Amino acid sequence: MSYLDAPRLHFSGWFQADVSTINNDVRFYQNASFVPEYQQLDQNGSWNPEGTGIFRLLDCSVTGAFLNGKLLTTAAGDPAIGATVQNAAGRAPGKLVDLDPQQQMVSEIWGMQVRLLNPAAQPLLQGDYRPAAFTNLWQRQQQGVRMDQQLAACYQSVLEEVAWPDLTGSPLLQALRAATEDGMLAIQFNLYGYGRDATIPRYTMGHVAGTIGPFRRGEPKHFVLGRQMIAAGSNFTQPAGGVNNLQAKWADDGLSLTADFGNSFPILNANSGPTNIGQILLGVLTTNPTAIVATVENTQVAIIGEVPYLADGWYTQTAGVQTFDLTNNPAARKLLPQCPLVLLTPVKGATTYTVLLQESIDGVYVRADSYVFRIDAGEAQRVEFYASSFGAPLKGAAINCSATEGFMGGSGGGNTVSPVTRPTAPIPSIGTPADAIAYASSVTTDSNGYAALALTASTAGPGVPRGYISGQLYGIAYQLATQPPGYVSNPLNYVSILAYSKKEVPDKPTWYGDIQQLFTQYGNLYPIMGRYVVDLRDYAAVVKRLNILGLAFSLPARDPTTCR
User: What is the pLDDT at residue 515?
Assistant: First the structure.
C-alpha cells in the first residue's frame, strides 16, 4: 500500500521555507576571505541572509479524501475534511537541510511533525516526518515576478510513530488506521510557486498540495513500487512532452489504477492552477514497443480515462491524485501486466494521439529508496534498491554501481556572485580521495526486487581535501545491467554521500586550537544566530551562553531545535 492506495486524504495550503542563503556558495566557508558585506541582502545572491532554516506548513487543511471508491470533498462526507494540517505544538518547526553547499539538489526536511486538528483545535492524528529529500525538480511555473522560484519539486516519505488521539465520527481516519502497518503512514506533497522577492507578500512562502495514505511493510518509503513514467529531455526545464514525471499504481484486485499528476502539469504563474494544454488521456498501449513512441493510432491504445485536471477544485481536492475505475474496461486490464502506460493528447482532426509521457521500456525501473547519506569515518551503511517491471518486483536483476559527480560540485552559487565582491577562495574539487568510500560494483535483486549495497567509509576518512570546508562529497550512479536501449533515466536518480572528516577530540579542547575556526564559520554563514542568540565568533559571548550551547549540542542531530 502507499499514498496512492485507499483510504487516503488530500491537503493543500501554504508552506514556508525560510532558508538561509549565505551558505549557498562554498567559497563563503573560507573564514580568511569572508567579509561582512556577504551578510547583506541582495549581495552575492544572499536574497535571505537572515534565514532561520525553518520549514513549516501554513494555512493548510484537509481538502478531500478517497474512501470506498468515492472522492469526498466536504465535512458532510467525513468530518476529517476541513481539519487543519499543522506542525508540532510546543517545539520548534522542521528545518530545511542541504547536504552540502556543493550539493544543493537534495534538500531534506528534518524534525517536522505533521498533525491534523479538528475545528476545536483537538488533534486527530499526528506523526513524525522521516527526513527525505525532494525529487522530480522541473520548471513547472511558466511566468513569475522578479526572483520567483519557477522550479517545483515533490517530497515523499513516511510519518513515523503515528498517534490517533481522536477517531470519533471519522470513518476515513478509522479506515486509514486499519489499513496501515508498522505505526507509519505514507505521505507525499508537491511544492511550487515559491517567492524569493522580499517585496512581495509570499516572500519565503509557496503552495503545497499533498496526500497521506496507508503504509505497508516491505515497500519503499520514498517512492511507489508501481508504474513509473519519466519525462524525456527535461533536465529541470520544460520536458519534451510539456509534462513532468508521474507514478501510478495498479490495484491488487486489478479493478482500478491510481496515478499522481500532482507535479506533472505546468502552471502559468505562482498562484494559478494547471495550464490548459488540451485534453489529456491516460491509456495503455496494445503492444510493448522497444522504443519511446511519439504518436499512436487510436487502435494502438486502450484508453483508461480522461484526466480532469482543468475541473474546478480538482487539484486542491485531490492534490493531483486520480483513480480510474477499470471495472468495465477489460481491454485495459488485459494489457496492463505487459504493456506500458501512456499519457496522451488527441491530434485535432485525426485518429491519432500525441504521446506526452510513456512508461519506461519493458516497464523496468530501479531506484535507491533513500539517496542521501552522511557517513562517519569507519562507519558502514547500506543503500537499498528496488527494481520492478510493469510494477511487479524484478527478481535476479543486476544493478551496476559506479562513481559519479551527478549535479554536485562547482561553487554551489551559480552566477549570482557580484564581480565587485567576488570571494577569493578557490572552488574545491569533489570525489577525492576515491578510496575514502568503498562499495561493490554490482548487486542483485532478490525475489522481492530488493537489493542492498553495503557502503563503507575508510577508517581514516577522506581527510580534509577541500581545505577550508571539512568532509568530502561522493556520488554513486546506478542502473540495471540489462537496461533496455532507449531507456529514459531520471537525472536525479543517483546517490549523494557526504563523508565526514575524521576528528580526534582532545581531552581538553582549546578555543583557538579546536573551536574558533568552526564557530567562526558558523557565525559567518548564519548571522541570525549572532544577532538574536549568541555570536559564535566571539569568545566572551560564547562563554556567557555555555549552558544553552551545551543543551543544544546534547540534542540529537535531527532535533529541529538545532538542526540545519
Answer: 93
**SS3 state at 359:** strand
CA neighbor of 195 nearest in space, from 98, 87, 269: 269
Tell me the average pLDDT of the chain.
93
Contacts of 247 (CB under 8 A, 6+ apart): 4, 223, 224, 226, 227, 228, 229, 259, 260
Q: Which residues pair with 375 in a beta bridge?
A: 499
Give the mean pLDDT of 26-36: 92
Beta-bridge partners for 40: none
Q: Tell me what percent of the chain is helix, strand and coil, each rounded to the nearest 5.
A: 15, 35, 50
Res 420 pLDDT > 60: no
248, 214, 186, 219: which is closest to 391 by C-alpha?
Answer: 248
Q: Is the peptide bond before 7 cis (omega within 30 degrees of 0)?
A: yes
Q: What grid cell was written down for 53?
A: 532554516
Selection from 216, 221, 191, 217 nearest residue 206 by Cα: 191
Report how far residue 284's alpha carbon sits from residue 337's, in angstroms, rounded to the nearest whole number. 10
Phi, psi angles (nearest 5°) of residue 526: -125, 75
Closest CA to 473 of 58, 74, 104: 104
What is the pairing mode between strands 123-129 and 113-117? Answer: antiparallel
Cell of 55: 520549514
How many Cα atoms sit within 13 Å of 20 on the Cβ side?
A: 24
Q: Is the pLDDT at 229 greater than 90, yes or no?
A: yes
Write out the three cell numbers for 278: 488540451
- In angstroms, the CA 234 to CA 219 distance is 28
Calculate the CA dihedral of residues 156, 162, 165, 170 and round it to 10 degrees: 50
- β-sheet bridge partners, residue 401: 478
Contact indicator for 175, 182 with CB cutoff of 8 Å: no
Do 344 and 296 meet the contact criterion of CB atoms below 8 Å apart?
yes
Cβ-count burial of 69 within 10 angstroms (0-12 exposed, 13-18 middle, 19+ buried)?
exposed
Q: pLDDT at position 254, please?
A: 97
Q: Which residue has the higher pLDDT, 471 or 550?
A: 471
* CA geometry: angle 499, 500, 502, nearest 5 deg: 130
Q: Answer yes or no: are the C-beta atoms of 30 and 520 closer than 8 Å.
A: no
Q: What does the H/E/C string look like for 519-532?
A: HHHHHHHCHHHHHH
Question: Could you tell me the three cell numbers for 535?
Answer: 555570536
What Å distances lie between residue 324 and 4, 66, 538, CA to CA? 12, 12, 62
The b-or-e profile of 435-463 (16+ CB within 10 A means b, else e) is ebbebeeebebeeebbbebebebbeebbb
Torsion of Cα atoms, 463 then 467 then 471 then 473, to 10°: -110
Assign 147 a pLDDT band (cuts: 50, 70, 90). confident
Asked whether the beta carbons of 389 and 360 are under 8 A apart, the reply is no
Query: What are 195's strand-pairing partners?
Result: 203
- All 3 cell numbers of residue 361? 521500456
- Rounded Cα gap, residues 306 and 291, in angstroms: 24
DSSP per-residue codes, 103-155: B-SS-EEES-EEEEE-TTS-EEEEEEEPP-B-EEEEE-BS--STT-B-EEEEE
Residues paired with 380 in a beta bridge: 456
